[in-house]
Amino acid sequence: MMNTDFIKGVVVPILTPIDGEERIDEKKMREQVDYVIDGGVLGILAFGSNGEFYVIEEDEMERGLKIMVDQAAGRVPVYFGIGAISTKKCVRLAKMAVANGASGISVLQPMFLKPTERELFLHFKTIADAVPQTPMLLYNNPGRVGYTMSAGLVERLAHEVENIVGMKDTSGDITQTSEFIRRTRDVNFKVFGGKDTLLYASMCHGAVGGVCTAANFMPELITDVYNKFVAGDLHGSLEAQFKLNPVRLSMDGASFPVAAKDMANLRGRDIGLPYTPNLATPEGPVLDKIKAEMKKAGLID
Fold first, then answer.
1. SS3 165
2. DSSP category for residue 148
3. Please, what is the angle between helix 151-160 and helix 117-130, to 10°?
4. What is the pLDDT of residues 69-112, one digit of tens each?
5. What is the pLDDT of residues 175-234, one digit of tens each?
6. For residues 226 and 45, what is the distance between their CA atoms, to the nearest angstrom?
7. Closest C-alpha among 183, 86, 170, 80 to residue 134
8. Measured between alpha carbons, how far is 119 from 202 in angstroms, rounded to an integer?
9. 60 CB-near residues (< 8 Å, 6+ apart)
10. How far apart are the C-alpha atoms of 23 and 63, rounded to whole Å?
11. Which residues are catalytic?
């Protein structure tokens, strides 16, 4: 059996800092790795949704992954996010990630398509089979992709493909998250919540942690939810969740995924701009709301 004990905690879908030519800024990337590890995360997800995977070329992904693995230096696992539509491209990325030291891969269901269960099963199984010694997580993000993975599909993959060992569920539907856990707990399948605002709720249903954007700019708040929960302080964990939520919800007014970089910059992180076509959030009501909630939470002066 593959060791999956390390798959837990707050995992950060790390921001990808870039220069004026939209090349990954190595110095800032290394600083961000140190910042999130110092902030208490138990894993780094390279090129997740907030890592802007959909606009980054493969050679840059490889360079960025090498930088992150080198800087993490074994302190926390580095997972590699894969969100390509083509099965063949996903396989290529999976092999590249493993060759460059990724501890695991996370694979999003293909966007734009409306695949059948059979198509999805074969897609995920083919990718997993290409890197049989590497733990693979499924990534369910219906809001971005337009359809959800069914509980039946996840149950089958968890039981039939040995190295598909967990998932991230960003459905925001706690019943669905709970079903994913209930149907797979017999094989110790590791389910992460994908909504920062529902970390406490997900863990109440048996999630092992969360993949949380908030850890990029307020790791102390989101890891507090996790740490208090696992220590048995449920009231403290819920209060920490309630402290975080208004800040996290203030991001929803901004263009996705820009707010995460905006907030990091507001906290003095100097992360810089998103990839085009996205632009930094302009001065105005949306940014004012973000700043107001960050002030209330004591994150900025």
1. strand
2. -
3. 30
4. 999 999 999 999 999 999 999 999 999 999 999 999 999 999 99
5. 999 999 999 999 999 999 999 999 999 999 999 999 999 999 999 999 999 999 999 999
6. 17
7. 80
8. 28
9. 23, 24
10. 10
11. 139, 168
Please report the domains of the chain, with CATH numbers, ordered by start residue: 9-233 (3.20.20.70)
DSSP string, 251-298: GGGSPTTHHHHHHHHHTT----PPPTT--PPPTTHHHHHHHHHHHHTT
| Amino acid code (one letter) for 256 | F
Give the tens place of pLDDT for each residue, 236-264: 999 999 999 999 999 999 999 999 999 99
CB atoms within 10 A of CB 173: 15
The residue behind tokens 């998250």 is 177
Q: Which of 148, 204, 154, 211 is nearest to 179 (CA)?
A: 154
For residues 292 and 285, what is the distance between their CA atoms, to the nearest angstrom? 10
Provide the token pair at 110: 């293909």
> HEC profile for 183-214?
HHHHHCCEEEECCHHHHHHHHHCCCCEEECHH
d(CA 98, CA 66): 11
- Report pTM: 0.98
Phi, psi of 297 (to 5 degrees): -85, 0
Cα separation, 10 vs 222, whole angstroms? 8
* Element containing residue 92 per DSSP (H, E): helix 87-99
For the chain, helix (H) and strand (E) counts, in that order, are: 12, 8
Do residues 268 and 260 lie in contact, with contact meaning Cβ atoms separated by under 8 Å? no
Class of residue 260 by CB neighbours under 10 A (exposed 0-12, middle 13-18, buried 19+): buried
